[in-house]
User: Fold this.
Amino acid sequence: MNYNELLLAAKSLFETQPSKISLLSNASAFLNEVLDELNWVGFYIFNGEILTVGPFQGKVACAEIPLGKGVCGEAAKLNQTMYVADVLNHQNHIACDSRSRSEVVVPIYVKDELFGVLDIDSPVLDRFDQDLISFLENITDLLIKQLTFNTL
Assistant:
């Protein structure tokens, strides 16, 4: 998979979005379309107190996640990407979809303020390698630029 080509395509897509909702909606659809073996791709948005479900592709999701709880809450609170190769062995995992086996969460901070997280689950054990995680961090950087510099 050529992640550089996918980043260019994502950049073009993201730059044409008229609102935050359309940006995050099309970002989740894009990732769901170009990456295989996923069962959930989406965003949780920080409302000042908790993470709330935002645009996503997949089954019905947990509506609210407190900071520090689950992989999403941990990544948001620590401001660092979290990868769990086997969610069944991660004590703080929240099981929204029992089919999920691995998960990666990338925090989204805009102007040093928590905006939310990109959350991706896979039904495949140890699905995400370092190249894919780096790609997802680069996708998040593109999103942050759009969220920062555009008045969406």
Remarks:
- The longest strand covers residues 113-122.
